[in-house]
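Table S4 entry, Pyrroloquinoline-quinone synthase.
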Amino acid sequence: MTNQPLTPDELEKALRAIGAERYHNLHPFHRALHDGKLNKGQVQAWALNRYYYQASIPAKDASLLARLPTAELRREWRRRLEDHDGTEPGSGGVARWLKLTNGLGLDRAYVESLEGLLPGTRFAVEAYVHFVRERSVLEAIASSLTELFSPTIISERVSGMLQNYAFITEETLAYFKPRLTQAPQDSAFALAYVKEHARTVEQQQSVLNALKFKCGVLWSMLDALDYAYVTPARIPPGAFRPETAA
């Protein structure tokens, strides 16, 4: 950052550069997942741990919704809640993620209990929820901008997993298809808000740092999985062990 504020287009360019360098599609665990180099137990561990992130998104968005100053913003974040929680039992992104874990042979009650979470997953997700709850509205919205890059990783993940894993079906991966349209809609709104409201050098630096933080959350979740489940496996006490999966 210079001593002068960036133009809105320059700020967008800087945000996209963070994603190009730090988004977790570059992580070795994601590359292994995409390329078919993981066994079923390792894929189960990924889905189980990622469930906590997915299930925490509505809580994160609800904490932000309560602080939003305009009806326009509240409508936007209320829609996000509906996307993830659904409008009736069995609908929404969290329910679709449970279809993924079920399709991988994991007991739903065990997944929802969170008993098998890696400590690193728990700490990363809770840090993200805390960040959105405690930081400014501008920073909280900026932290959601990883959605700018998610269509790329979703496309890679779906094509790679269908191609490389016999135990994966299109039905198992039903979570991802709606996100190909939801994520661009969400990120377009958030990006427009950030470009309009991050006007000073300090505000712009705060939104850049917020996106770096969120990229770090997602990266650290894969670090934890890589450390625990990729050879040599170092699974911490109490965490999910593939050989005990239901």
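The chain has eleven helices and no strands.
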